[in-house]
TrEMBL record:
This is protein O-GlcNAc transferase. The keyword Repeat applies. The keyword Repeat applies. SUPFAM superfamilies: S-adenosyl-L-methionine-dependent methyltransferases (SSF53335), TPR-like (SSF48452), UDP-Glycosyltransferase/glycogen phosphorylase (SSF53756). It is an enzyme of class 2 (transferase). Residues 652-694 form the Methyltransferase type domain. Pathway: Protein modification; protein glycosylation. Residues 233-387, 395-576 form the O-GlcNAc transferase C-terminal domain. It comes from Chromatium okenii. It holds the Pfam family Glyco_transf_41.
């Protein structure tokens, strides 16, 4: 067929549009191919091949689209749109270097075309910059974006990436000169993540988050989840993330997923993560009751998938980090949506109800700068993994570290390092001769730039040592080679601080106002290491120098930090129970009491079993009337002079087999850490609708008696004889004198501290009353969170029966 006999392109394209409008996509594709089969030698065939490629790309058929674009280029080699789109399809298939080659060829060969089309020119440069950044070819990526911004300075997104590239390379001054762009414009264009390392002002961080929401997040839709919730007896928790792979968020959360109480919750993972084949990813998938890949569906379909599984509480582990899909949340697929861990700050997202933190992270004075309602953990916001793998101990010589010198280290991401903090680090090196600073170098520009900066401070560049990225087990083992971790500001260490403390390495931090600048401080505060928290750079410097010059201080701190593995900071069962309690509280607060499943037990009729914990055989008859009823069957454990290890007895009881636990004047005979373990163990053995009653001496009332000079006055008669305030405070003196050392008092509680101990142990609802006439406390708590009225009714039934 001659060219003159071919159907005109306008007629062809109009006919195809009509077919597409009618939904006949395959017929439209066939029409393209018929025309092309008849027009083998037509000089305009490149346009038809290009349009066919566009159609195929829209249908997610990248291989076919690539073939069509190549045909167009074969006919017209200078047809830039086909070459550009070819690069895009190659990138989608993961063939990044081939994609880069296509875009580089456009710049090298098609200058006349680019000069005539500014938008195509900048788009090509921006695609190169974006993909080069992904490929970690930072200098060339920065150069491409600088060229693009020189052509058109009004490109906030290109400017955003350019600025973050300079952060990653420690290229200072950060705001290098660009034609037509002021430093203020550069800072204003920063991403939410970049901003965390630029300012400690939570108001500015909120403004940046809200700008992201305005630009990227769709308006809220009608909620997919029912307004009143689902009323599930067993709540369904959903975790939403693109980081269920070898990533810091996954490294922290994997054991949380494993430890969730399966009597109370089912755990769902919703993932658009690359499968990196890691053991960590396999652990995460195994820890989920249901794991759903949503990477191959759009945001609307992903939200519908979450809604279909009737998730009660959706935990967004992503925030405003790379790979975020905030438009899943705008459809509210779950009645309660919580931001946690992935992004250390406010999201500005109108569909996120809560931000999970703690009292240290989220000071009351800064609440106005958070779009979410704060949800506070009792001690520390951060979960962690006690099963993390460690390599065999390493030697300093392996990393060219001097054996006798002080080794300061910081393995935070390099974009967190700022000129101000680096200047302090250099002064520390000046004041601690022969010390070295060991830093992460995840790209070749970091050592070049930082050693050059060090020289400006008169520091021998060889005193800066650099560590590349390695397997997690080796990465952990490296911490043991350093003496002190120097944190960054205003973007603190998060996972890295956790790892350092786990490996016994002290962390020195600087806490500011914003969430990101208080992360390491939260860990240290929870660990009782407030001495390692500074609130200005001068104090930070002085503490580092003092540490380096005091071998005794170093030894004491290392011993204190090394003991943390066995203490509360890394007590993951307790941390999991605390989180679960907060999840229930959030559901109750947002949806009301009706959102909670009906779990109030009938304690008066059916056969039930209770565990009684008491301090000595003579108290065996000391019990509540409710437990003296026929349907209650008793099992016992007590401590005495021979043994104070009542935990060993409870540990032999199967999980969730006891209807109630009654602890009468036994808690105060244990050390505080054992008392906490006893309360947690008691919760473990309780059935889901179980409850606990605790009777303990009232420390506040007793101290009032001593202050009133009534320390030795008999208060009442017990089976052991007259009881004085000193007996209540220190233990019954006559029994101790007779050799019953188990009767010594090792801890004490006030009304508030007993309530806090039960809450920390994970009980859902807690009430404590003081009985001044008896100088004791009565506490009542339920394993699950009950509505307030139900709790009051149940406690009245149990305690007043």
């Amino acid at each position: 067929m001659t060219t003159s006999q071919l159907e005109p392109l306008t007629d062809l394209f109009n006919a195809i549009e009509q077919l597409k409008t009618a939904g006949h996509i395959e017929a439209a594709l066939a029409r393209y191919r018929v025309w092309l089969a008849q027009a083998a030698n037509s000089p305009t065939a490149y346009a038809v091949w290009f349009n066919l490629g566009v159609e195929l790309a829209s249908l997610k058929r990248p291989h076919d689209a690539i073939a069509a674009y190549r045909q167009a280029i074969d006919i017209k080699a200078d047809f830039v749109p086909a070459r550009f789109n070819l690069g895009t399809q190659l990138e989608q298939l993961g063939q990044h270097q081939l994609a880069l080659t296509q875009w580089r060829d456009i710049l090298a060969q098609q200058q006349p075309v680019l000069l005539a089309d500014l938008s195509l020119h900048t788009l090509t440069l921006n695609n190169l910059g974006r993909l080069l950044e992904i490929e970690r070819e930072y200098p060339e990526a920065e150069a491409m974006l600088a060229q693009s911004l020189t052509l058109d300075s009004n490109q906030p997104k290109a400017l955003q990436h350019w600025l973050h590239l300079r952060q990653k390379q420690c290229a200072w001054p950060l705001c290098a000169e660009l034609p037509g762009v002021s430093p203020a414009q550069m800072i204003a264009a920063a991403s939410a993540l970049s901003t965390l390392a630029l300012t400690d002002d939570p108001a500015q961080q909120l403004a940046v988050a809200q700008r992201f929401v305005t630009e990227k997040v769709k308006p809220l839709t009608e909620p997919l989840a029912p307004i009143g919730g689902y009323g599930h007896r067993k709540l369904r928790i959903g975790y939403l993330s693109s980081d269920f792979c070898l990533h810091p968020v996954a490294l922290l959360t994997v054991e949380l997923f494993e430890l969730h109480d399966r009597e109370q919750f089912t755990v769902h993972g919703f993932c658009w993560t690359r499968d990196d084949g890691s053991l960590l990813r396999r652990r995460i998938i195994a820890a989920m009751d249901q794991f759903t890949q949503i990477g191959n569906v759009d945001d609307e379909a992903a939200a519908q998938c979450i809604r279909a599984q009737e998730i009660d509480i959706l935990i967004d582990l992503q925030g405003l980090t790379s790979g975020a899909r905030p438009n899943i949340l705008v459809q509210r697929p779950a009645p309660v949506q919580i931001s946690y861990l992935g992004f250390p700050g406010t999201s500005g997202h109108p569909a996120l109800d809560y931000l999970l933190g703690d009292d240290y992270l989220l000071p009351e004075s800064e609440h106005v700068h958070y779009s979410e309602r704060p949800l506070r953990m009792p001690r520390c916001f951060q979960v962690s993994d006690r099963q993390r793998e460690e390599a065999a101990p390493l030697q300093r010589a392996t990393y060219q570290l001097p054996d006798e010198a002080i080794v300061f280290c910081c393995f935070n991401n390099t974009y967190k390092i700022t000129p101000d903090v680096f200047a302090v680090w250099m002064r520390i090196l000046q004041r601690v001769p022969d010390s070295v600073l060991w830093l992460l170098a995840d790209n070749p520009q970091v050592p070049l730039n930082l050693t050059r900066e060090a020289t400006q401070y008169g520091i021998d560049p060889t005193r800066l040592r650099f560590a590349g990225r390695v397997a997690p087990s080796v990465y952990l083992a490296r911490y043991a080679l350093a003496d002190l971790f120097l944190d960054t500001f205003p973007f603190n260490a998060g996972t890295t601080a956790n790892d350092a403390l786990w490996m016994g390495l002290p962390v020195l931090t600087y806490s500011g106002r914003a969430f990101a600048s208080r992360m390491a401080g939260s860990l240290l505060h929870a660990a009782g290491l407030d001495a390692l928290i500074s609130t200005d750079l001068h104090d930070y410097e002085e503490k580092a120098v003092s540490f380096a010059h005091s071998p005794e201080q170093r030894l004491a701190l290392r011993q204190q930090v090394a003991a943390l593995r066995q203490q509360d900071l890394f007590d993951m069962p307790t941390r999991t129970r605390e989180l679960e309690t907060l999840y229930r509280l959030a559901l109750h607060e947002r949806l009301g009491a009706d959102a909670l499943p009906e779990i109030t037990p009938d304690v008066t009729t059916s056969e039930r079993q209770f565990l009684r914990v008491f301090c000595a055989p003579q108290h065996q008859t000391d019990t509540l009337p409710i437990f003296q009823r026929e349907q209650w069957r008793e099992i016992q454990c007590h401590l005495n002079a021979a043994s104070t290890d009542i935990l060993s007895t409870i540990n032999n009881i199967t999980d969730a087999t006891v209807d109630a636990v009654y602890i009468s004047h036994a808690l105060e005979h244990l050390f505080f850490h054992d008392a906490a373990r006893l309360l947690a163990a008691a919760r473990r053995v309780l059935k889901p609708d179980g409850f606990i009653v605790v009777i303990s001496a009232d420390l506040q009332a007793i101290c009032g008696l001593i202050a009133a000079n009534r320390a030795t006055e008999p208060l009442y008669q017990s089976t052991a004889g007259a009881i004085t305030a000193l007996d209540l405070l220190f233990g019954h003196q006559a029994a101790i004198a007779a050799g019953d050392t188990g009767m010594a008092q090792r801890s004490g509680f006030t009304r508030d501290s007993l309530a806090a101990a039960l809450t920390t142990a994970g009980y859902g609802r807690v009430g404590v009353i003081s009985r001044p006439e008896h100088f004791d406390l009565w506490a009542f708590a339920t394993k699950r969170l009950l509505a307030a009225d139900d709790f009051a009714a149940l406690s009245q039934t149990v305690l007043m029966a």
